[in-house]
Amino acid sequence: MMSLFQVAMLGLLAFPAIEAGQTRHRIGETEARRISDAEYEAVLEAARRNGWTYPADQVESGHRRHFEEFRMRLLNRGYEIVLDGRSV
Description:
The radius of gyration is 14 Å and the shape is elongated. By secondary structure, it is mainly alpha-helical. Helices cover 59% and strands 9% of the residues.
């Protein structure tokens, strides 16, 4: 399993900012969710190691919130998230 640091770096390094004039990169929604879920699971694992636990409804809500924040980070870096089945 990847460490929290490794997952965070994956999220940052895998998606460098797009320079002005460059073509926007596209990423499929399923792939974006997979990466976001991996990041969030690393956060939860770190919390578990510290003895913190959360009810299932809070974990589910956290996954949704984390994906929305991850999606915004991608958009701010110049990426476009496309629905699955469309040209990526």
